[in-house]
Write a structure and sequence with these properties.
single chain, alpha+beta, 2 domains, three-stranded antiparallel sheet, 9 helices, binds zinc ion
Length: 273
């Protein structure tokens, strides 16, 4: 089965060639640790490429999710996923069977560079920031941070969550004098952001990052918040609605990378002798 070339949504001049998943690929990802979703995704997207390999750790989160979906829909005869949801029209639960091919019409490719420059001072000192979507490498860092967050009932939870949110912002920025090491540079920006004046510096920086996210929308239609991605599905009609009634629900469903990475299904391994 041939997978058509995939234009990277953030840099469509880069076309990536993937092979269809083999049994060997599925075996490799069968016991995959959900807390290492992003690290495994990078390994998977790199190992599925025909040379020359473009390191998927440098791709944006949207590029990576869209690539997972691309391989999925182009390697399955029937790429359907079922999502169940509580219907707010009739209060019962419905199943939506979504043909993931339908999402193709939501994919957008960027026609501008995947970053914007802006001036926001730090402690009164004029500073030029580059704002850019989160990449795979940033997601690896957030994933490690998330794993070390205290339990939700822990009194330190909300402080931990705030630090997570600031790290997420720091990872959507770059500075001209960033140290070469990725982690060192991210930690330095984190400390700079922590030192910013709350109302006059930090708040404008957050607003511009949010604006950048909207202006640079690319890939599948999704919402990304607190390191979690949600796919926005086509509106679903209430199953109990009277004919002709216009009662639909727009579903935001978690995009779980692991659901798009092949693994060996237990029913294939059952021994029927
Ligand atoms: Zn309903």
């Amino acid at each position: 089965m041939n997978i058509p070339s995939f234009p990277l949504p953030s840099k469509p001049q880069i076309e990536v060639k993937f092979h269809a998943p083999t049994v060997k690929d599925a075996i490799k990802y069968s016991d995959f640790n959900p807390s290492e979703d992003e690290v495994t995704t990078t390994e998977y997207l790199n190992s599925m490429q025909e040379p020359p390999i473009s390191d998927s750790a440098e791709w944006t989160i949207q590029d990576r999710r869209t690539a997972l979906w691309w391989i999925f829909v182009n390697s399955r005869p029937d790429p359907v996923m079922t999502y169940s949801y509580e219907c707010r029209h009739c209060n019962s639960s419905h199943n939506a069977d979504i043909d993931l091919n339908q999402l193709a019409e939501t994919v957008e490719l960027l026609t501008v560079e995947p970053h914007v420059k802006t001036q926001v001072p730090v402690n009164g000192k004029p500073t030029q920031w580059t704002l850019k979507p989160l990449t795979g490498r940033g997601a690896h860092m957030l994933e490690r941070m998330r794993a070390s967050l205290p339990d939700m009932k822990d009194p330190d939870y909300s402080a931990g969550m705030s630090r997570f949110r600031i790290a997420e912002l720091a990872l959507c920025t770059a500075l001209d004098d960033d140290p070469e090491d990725f982690t060192e540079a991210a930690n330095r920006r984190f400390e700079m952001i922590e030192a910013m004046a709350l109302e006059t510096e930090f708040t404008p920086l957050v607003a511009r990052i949010q604006l950048m996210q909207r202006d640079l929308r690319h890939g599948l239609l999704m919402s990304i918040e607190h390191g979690t991605s949600r796919l926005i599905l086509p509106p679903q009609k209430c199953k109990n609605a009277k004919e002709g009634a216009d009662v639909t629900t727009t579903l935001y469903v978690p995009f779980l990378n692991r659901e798009f990475i092949p693994s060996i299904r237990p029913e294939w391994m059952a021994n029927h002798h």
